[in-house]
Design goal:
Blueprint lengths: L37 E3 L6 E4 L22 E6 L2 E6 L4 E7 L2 E6 L5 E6 L13 E6 L5 E5 L5 E5 L5 E7 L30 H14 L4 E7 L5 E7 L4 E6 L6 E6 L9 E5 L6 E2 L9 E7 L5 E7 L6 E7 L5 E6 L8 E3 L5 E3 L15 E9 L15 E12 L12 E2 L5 E9 L1 E8 L5
Parallel strand pairs: 21-25
Antiparallel strand pairs: 1-2, 2-28, 3-4, 4-5, 6-7, 7-8, 8-9, 10-11, 11-12, 12-13, 14-15, 15-16, 16-17, 18-19, 19-20, 20-21, 22-23, 23-24, 24-25, 26-27, 27-28
Length: 442
Amino acid sequence: MKRRMLLGLAGAAGSLAAAGFPTPFLAAADADDGVPREFRDPVSGQLVRRLSRQAGSHVLYFHDNAFTADGRYMVYDAPNGVDVVDMASHEAQPLIEGPYECMMVSRQQNIAYVYRKNSEGGGKGAMGLDYFAVSIPDGKVTQIAEKLDGSLFQANADDTLMLGVWQERPFELQPGPKVTGTDGGYNAVGPDGKPLSFAAAKEVRMAERLSQGIPMEIFTLDLATGERRTVTRSDRDWLNHIQFSPTDPEQIMYCHEGPWHMVDRIWTIRADGSGQRRMHERSMNMEIAGHEFFSYDGNRIWYDLQTPRGEDFWLASVDLDSGKRIWRHMGRNEWSVHFMTDRQGRLGGDGGGPDMVAKAPDGKWLYLYDEEIIEDLGVSAPNAEDLVRPARLVAHKLVDMSAHDYRLEPNLQFSADGSLLSFKSNMHGEIHVYAVETGRSA
C-alpha cells in the first residue's frame, strides 16, 4: 500500500498542491438563500448563528469530534469540500476543496482527518478510498492511506492509530431515490406492497443488512509505520459505530449493529484485541440500548436506554473502571435521538419528531438537561452499591425545532468551553450548520 505517513505533521511542509491536490482557502462567497445569519430562539431567548456558507452543509456525526483541542476551530462538511470555522469570529472558509468529507478532528493536534470520495460519490464506509490529514487552519495535506482495503473512521487519543472496518462485500442500505433535505432515503415496502414510512423502511433495511451475515473485522492502522492489525472479527455480526476513547489510546468501543431490540449492541475492546466486554445486558424483551458515546474524560460510556422500546426512557451511563451505573429517567417529550456531554459533563440532546421511536407529541427541541440523583430515603438495600443508581433528567428547551424535519438528524456537539451547541437543521428549508448559545461556559 502506498502511503505518506503522518510524522511531524504539525510543522510539516506536507502540502500536496504540487501533486495536484486542491489548494486550501480558496475564496467563496456566502450563499444568498434567504437563511438568516442569526436569530434569537423565541422560547429560550438564546442567540442562534448560522455557521455554514453554503446550503447542503453538514456537521459531523455526534460522536466524531469536530472541535480543535483549544476550541478555536470547528470543522464541518460543505457541498464542495470541508470548511473550518473560526469560533472567535464565527466565520467559515474552505479548509480543503474537492470531493472530500471529514471523519473527525484530532483531540490533541489541529488536524482534520478526511477522505476523498470515489468516482461514484461513495464516501463514509466505502472501500478503497484515499485518506488524508489536513492541518488547521492552513490546510496543509498529508496522505495517510491510498485505496485502502477497508474504511477508516477515527483516530485515537494520541494520533498514533486510526480505527477502521473491513467487510467482505458491500450492502446498500439506502437504494433508490434520496429524500431532499434529509440524511438520504430508506426505501422498502410492507406486506401490503405499499411503501413504508422513512422510519419503518429504515428498520426493514437494517434487519435485511443484519441477516446477510457478512464477514467483517475491526482493524487499526499505525500512522507511523503503516502496520495494519486486526482487533476483532466476526463471520455474522454487523460491526459498526466504532470509536476510540478520547483519553485512552488503546480503548475502543463498537457496536453490534442492527434493529436494537435484536442485538446486544454495546461492546468495548482493547486495541490489541484483549478485554472484550459487553457493556449492557438486556433484562426484558424489547429493551433497547444504543447511540453510545464516551464521556469527554473517557471514564464513562453513555447510551440511550428504553425499557421497553418506545415506552420508558433513560439516559444511562456505566463507569469503565468500577462498573457503577446510573440511569436517568425522562419523559417522552424530553427524549433525544442523540445525547452529548460537554467537557464539564453537562448534558444536551437534539430532540425527536413524533414519527420516531418515542412518538413524542412535543419533542422537537434542542435541550439542555440537569441531572438530579434520586437519593435513598435513609434506609438502603443491603446490596445498594451493586445496583443501578436512579436519577432523573430535567430538560430545558434551547432551540425550537418545530420546523425541522427529523429525517435529518441534528447531530449536536458542544464547543470546547460549553458555551455553544452546534447542530445541523433544515428548519429554513435548506440544510445548514448552526450554533446556539447555551448560557453556560467552562
